[in-house]
Amino acid sequence: MQRTRFGDMACSIARTMDVIGEPWSPLILRNIYVGITRFEQIQQGLGISRKVLAERLRWLVENGVLERQEYSSRPPRHEYTLTVKGLELCDLLLVMVRWGDRWTAGEAGPPVLYRHHACGEISHVELHCSVCDQPMHATDVDVLPGPGAEAEETSARTSP
Amino acid sequence: MQRTRFGDMACSIARTMDVIGEPWSPLILRNIYVGITRFEQIQQGLGISRKVLAERLRWLVENGVLERQEYSSRPPRHEYTLTVKGLELCDLLLVMVRWGDRWTAGEAGPPVLYRHHACGEISHVELHCSVCDQPMHATDVDVLPGPGAEAEETSARTSP
DNA sequence: CCCTGTCAGTTCCCTAAGGGAACGTATCGG
DNA sequence: CCGATACGTTCCCTTAGGGAACTGACAGGG
């Protein structure tokens, strides 16, 4: 399809999308997160094309989000597990779930619930400020240029 | 490309991806969030194809994430603004930024900084539990079936 | 020892989605 | 009238996704 490269942009959203922006990637991560770690299981659970699944898994392993591990050597079998980098992406999934529950769940209610270990209650994530611990939303922040803002076109090609 | 439909899945991640899972959508939202609200500006800023931008904007408006508003009637000109639904998606962007900053920013540091209105400090989002206010991450939760979880299997199976 | 089954992919073809450029329309300013 | 601006739409080309068939490596059963 000749997709534009996101990885080179000076934007953390674009660079995150470069890693997990392909349509199936978050769902693959979700499955591995809940313990569906083998090729066959993931493929059947999602209904994803085997070809695309193989591509995505390879990409996610290359990018340090997943690890491919042998769980049987006699018939050589592998499973995929989350790295720390991948686990932190699952936080992103929790926020996606929160939005999906609020805006797309409809009458039936959320398909999945989350029980917090610390309090034992069914709950959902909320965003707080890392400094003052108060709620922090998109409406509560000013956006300022940071140190990595446009390290200039030495390596970052934004326009062809 | 004959893409599989995500919107019908009983999964809030899939349904969220159905709305903003197309590669450019988060970047379009980001631009509108920071005040780049017109077609021409967005197109030039992102380097996105005009065709795809028109498609995405239409889709996002149809799905209630954006509103198309006339800011000039004499030459009929429009701009796009976030709905509440769209603004809440920007919270998701903040979490994406956080991950991108941590794992993809490299030496140069984050390209963009966020200053929290409440405390005036440069900070980032952290995920907390909506019930007990303690930190809540993907490792801190149990995943349970919810009310909207696939009512189909009730006929085949009695109980889990 | 062959047959079947399972797992983890790979290869093939077809279709549809993204990229890019040109074109269309509406208006204003000079 | 001519150009510039803003917002798309249309066209063609390339490429990525879907789907099914195929491969390979082994295990278990008869």
Automatic annotation (TrEMBL), chains A, B:
The keyword ATP-binding belongs to this UniProt entry's keyword annotation: no
Pfam families in UniProt: HxlR
Gene3D superfamilies hit by this protein: Winged helix-like DNA-binding domain superfamily/Winged helix DNA-binding domain
Residue ranges of domain HTH hxlR-type in the record: 11-108
UniProt keyword terms in alphabetical order: DNA-binding, Transcription, Transcription regulation
Single GO molecular function: DNA binding
Keyword Transcription regulation: yes
Identification of the protein by name: Transcriptional regulator, HxlR family
